[in-house]
Amino acid sequence: MPLIDVVVSRIVQETPTVKTFYLTKPDGTSIGAYTPGAHIDVVGPTAITRQYSLCSAPDGREPFAVAIKREENSRGGSAALHDVAEGDALQISEPRNLLEIDSSAAHHVLIAAGIGITPMLSMARHLDVAGGSFELHYFARSEQEAAFLPLLRDRCPDKVHAHLGVGRDSQSQLLGDALIAAPSGSHVYVCGPEGFMDKMVAVAEQYVPAEAVHIENFHAAEQPDASANSAFEVELDGEVYEIPADKSIVDVLNENGCDVDTSCQEGICGTCIMSVLSGTPEHRDNVLSKSEKDSGEVIATCVSRAQGERMVLDYY
């Protein structure tokens, strides 16, 4: 996938651990519009690629913005980017959207915790301008750690519900109360730490269908050792390829000139998703929704495998 050269035009310290990086083209112009909830790959100074949600206004009239939390146990991505200065050059991918607003929904319930506010910010700003029906529930340890809360309170105060310092046991009750009051046809969107999202999804599915729950997760699922894998065949465009136990589907296909885009190689970005025409996937990703996995119609080819001996795939 081709990368875009960008320049860091401005940096804002939002909280003690979160910085927002504003990105433009090298000539200072805007990179363009994107759909609310989208994310980009960012190639940092150490050549590590990480995925970050866009949190600027999505209409393209301002620079792209990504808010990055410096993680205590950073593997080099967030720590390196926090050392970037204004004027530095970076590379990014085109925006991709795994958390897109469902236009058929009667109402949108946005749920964010911590740095998970980033995609919800662009979605809330879009829905507010477009006159969409929505509410945003924002969980954070304290007001000091709640990035963008002043902006949200200024732009859409009646739609924002800040839950500050709320204990884990109370989070589920708060979401349940919100969904009881939500109109029929509501959709739920969740982003935050992995444990928080698991809990919120479980609560949401008690009130709305699984296909009405949308998540974004940039934490890779733990993968089993390759010794537990079995070989299988994949057919693509009439050609059959053997997938050995120690190689991924996407690696084998690309080695044979099939040109499948990939980025994270961890099952979290969605770049390598392909359509499943026959066969049963063994899903090992953290990018597809529960309904997408249950359908068996798509597969993240960088980590997932086949349950049987053969699958037929097509480009997504």
From TrEMBL:
Coiled-coil regions in this chain? none
Q: Which cofactor does it need?
A: FAD; FMN
Q: Which CDD domains match?
A: fer2 (cd00207), PDR_like (cd06185)
Q: Where are the transmembrane segments?
A: none
What residues does the FAD-binding FR-type domain cover? 1-102
Pinpoint the 2Fe-2S ferredoxin-type domain residues: 230-316
Q: Which Gene3D superfamilies match?
A: 3.10.20.30, Nucleotide-binding domain of ferredoxin-NADP reductase (FNR) module, Translation factors
Which keywords does the record carry?
Answer: 2Fe-2S, Flavoprotein, FMN, Iron, Iron-sulfur, Metal-binding, Oxidoreductase
Q: Which InterPro entries match?
A: 2Fe-2S_ferredoxin-like_sf, 2Fe-2S_ferredoxin-type, 2Fe2S_fd_BS, Beta-grasp_dom_sf, DmmA-like_N, FAD-bd_FR_type, FNR_nucleotide-bd, MRET
Q: Which domain of life is it from?
A: Bacteria
For this chain, one GO molecular function annotation is: 2 iron, 2 sulfur cluster binding
PANTHER family hit by this protein: CARNITINE MONOOXYGENASE REDUCTASE SUBUNIT (PTHR47354:SF1), NADH OXIDOREDUCTASE HCR (PTHR47354)
Record-given protein name: Oxidoreductase
Species of origin reads Gordonia desulfuricans
